[in-house]
Amino acid sequence: MADANIRAARPLSPHLQIFRPIITMMMSIFHRITGAALYFGMALFAIWLVAAASGADAFDTVNGLLGSILGQIVLFGFTWALIHHMLGGLRHFVWDCGHGFALKTANAMAWATLIGSISLTVVIWIVGYLVK
Q1: 95 contact partners, CB below 8 Å, separation of at least 6
Q2: At 121, which CATH number?
Q3: In a domain, 2, yes or no
Q4: Which of 13, 72, 74, 82 is the most exposed place for a label (fewest CB within 10 A)?
Q5: Is 85 marked as a binding-site residue?
C-alpha cells in the first residue's frame, strides 16, 4: 500500500507571475475588462436618456457632468471600450469560423485589435469635435 503522506513529485500549477505577458493574453484580459466597462458605460447612457426624457433641467445637469473634463475622460474611455470590445468580438468571430489560429496570425490580429481600437477612438473623437 502506498504511503499517503508522501507528496507526489509533480509541478505546481503556474501562476501569472511565471507567465511572460504576450499580446494574445493581454487582449483576452482587455476584452473582459472592456466588457465590464461597457456595463457601466451603458448605465451612464441610460441616465443620459432618462435625463433627456425628464426635461431640460435634468438634461442640462447630466450634460454638464458629462461635458466636464472628468466626464469627457470617462466618455473617451467608454468609446475606446466599445470599439475595442467590438474588434475583439470580430477577432473571436474569425476564430469561430475556424481561421486565424496560427501564432503569427493570432498575434497580428491581437495587435490589429489594439491599434485599430485606439485609432478609431481618436478618429471618432476628432470627427465629433469637428462636427460640433
Answers
A1: 101
A2: 1.20.1300.10
A3: no
A4: 13
A5: yes
Q: Is there a domain that residue 69 lies in?
A: yes
CB 44 within 8 A of CB 78: yes
Question: From CA 120, how far away is CA 7, in angstroms rounded?
Answer: 54
Cell readout for 42 is: 451603458
Q: What is the pLDDT of residues 1-51, one digit of tens each?
A: 555 566 666 666 666 667 788 999 999 999 999 999 999 999 999 999 999
In a domain, 46, yes or no: yes
Q: How many domains does the chain have?
A: 1
State whether the Cα torsion 84-90-92-94 is positive or negative. Answer: negative
Query: Which amino acid is it at 108?
Result: A
Work out the number of other CB atoms within 10 angstroms of the CB of residue 82.
Answer: 19
Q: Is residue 127 part of a domain?
A: yes
Contacts of 99 (CB under 8 A, 6+ apart): 105
User: pTM value?
Assistant: 0.82
Is 78 in a helix, a strand, or coil? Answer: helix
Question: Domain span at residue 90?
Answer: 23-131
